[in-house]
Amino acid sequence: xxxxxxxxxxxxxxxxxxxxxxxxxxxxxxxxxxxxxxxxxxxxxxxxxxxxxxxxxxxxxxxxxxxxxxxxxxxxxxxxxxxxxxxxxxxxxxxxxxxxxxxxxxxxxxxxxxxxxxxxxxxxxxxxxxxxxxxxxxxxxxxxxxxxxxxxxxxxxxxxxxxxxxxxxxxxxxxxxxxxxxxxxxxxxxxxxxxxxxxxxxxxxxxxxxxxxxxxxxxxxxxxxxxxxxxxxx
Length: 234
Fold this sequence. Notes:
- The chain is mostly helical and 234 residues long.
- It has ten helices and no strands.
C-alpha cells in the first residue's frame, strides 16, 4: 500500500508538466493533440514490449554462448532498452505528426515528443514501483527522465526539420539513445559503485535541460520563429 501512495505522489511533477504544456497555447486543436499524445504515450508500452521482445529473440539467435556479461549488459541497455524505447516513442508521436504537418511548429514538436515520452514513463513507473524503494519512486517522479529525453529529442528534431539537416536528424535519435543506454548501464551491479553516480548525473543534466526548455517555451510562446509551421518553411 505504501508503494502505491508514493507512486501517486511521484506522478505530481508529470501532471504539472503536462498542464504547463497544454496551457502554452489557447488552441483547442493543440490541446486535443496534447491529450492524444499522452494517450499514445500510454499505449506505446505495448509497442516497446514487442520491440524489446524481438530484440531479445535476435540476441538469443545471434549471440555466441561464451559472450561476456559486459557485452550482454551493453546490448540490453543500448538496444533492448534505449533503441527500442526511444524508437517506439518517436514512432507513436510521428504517426500523428504526419497528419498535422501543415500546422506543426518547432514548439509543437518539442512538446508532443516530450508528452509521449512522459506518458510512457508514467506507465513504466507503475511497473517499477513494485520493485524499488519509496525514495527511488519519488526521485524517478521528480526528475521525469523520459519526459526530459523526449524534450531533448524534440528540440533536436525540430531543428533538423527547420534546417533540413541529416546530421541533426541522426543526433535527434543518437543523443537520447546514448543518454538512456548510459544511464541504464551505469546502474548494473557488475560495475563499480561510482558508476551509479554517473547515472544520477546524467538524469540531473537531462532534468536541467527540461527546465531550461520549459523556460524557453514560456518565453517564446508568441515568437513566430517557434510557432510558424516548420514544414511550410521547406
